[in-house]
Amino acid sequence: MRQAPVATGLGSLPRFEEHAEPLYRGAARAALEAAPAADSDWRALLAHLDNDAERVIALLASMLGKRDQWLRRVGVAAQPDALRRILEDALQQEIDGELDRVRALFPSGVLATLVRCAKYASANLGRNGGDDELAAALARCAAAGGLPPIAVTANRRRCAKADGVRPSSRTERENRMIGVGGHA
User: What secondary structure letter does DSSP report for 164?
Assistant: First the structure.
């Protein structure tokens, strides 16, 4: 057995593992188990994956196995703000792509009806002293062709608005997705 110099206090030198998947899964599981229950980042990840901890572990293990590919691409570990921007841009592109695919599923006749309804509701809310923020959101939907605009910032506004909804008025799945009602 090869050993590092005694002065380092490291003991034997590390060895390479050909099949490291079990180690990656173990590291991902340990990280998830060590995460505080109130950690908003872990809760958001779990909510995004319908609270499927095994899927989270599998995805993290897969990422660890491919880290040589994405760490080179990121290359800014010493600059957390730059790393965050790169990751948020990649996430925005993914979200926008998925929302584009969903938007394409709506028949044009339905979108035309949604535009008319959104315009009508927006105008009536504005005229009758209703919720100005909701009226503005409906006007943006009408201007975007019937559906909410496709942008991460628009999605964040909708999520913030949804957080103000009482848990009792949400479905069980919605509660689980945002981590309320003991489901997270």
Answer: T
172 close to 183: Cβ distance less than 8 angstroms: yes
Whether residue 159 lies inside any domain: the answer is no
Give pLDDT tens digits for 53-108: 999 999 999 988 887 777 666 665 557 777 778 778 888 888 888 888 888 888 88
Q: How far apart are CA 143 and CA 122, in angstroms?
A: 11
- Read off the pLDDT of residues 122-161 as tens digits, 9 standing for 90 and up: 888 877 777 888 888 888 888 888 887 766 555 454 444 4
Q: How far apart are the first and last CA of the chain?
A: 46
| DSSP character at residue 73 | H
Domain membership of residue 53 as a residue range: 17-65
Q: Residue written as tokens 């909410």?
A: 148
In a domain, 173, yes or no: no
Q: Phi/psi zone of residue 121: left (φ > 0), alpha (ψ -120 to 50 degrees), beta? A: alpha
Under DSSP, the state recorded for 165 is S
Does the residue 5 lie in any domain?
Answer: no
Is 132 inside a domain boundary? no
Give the total number of structural domains in the chain: 1
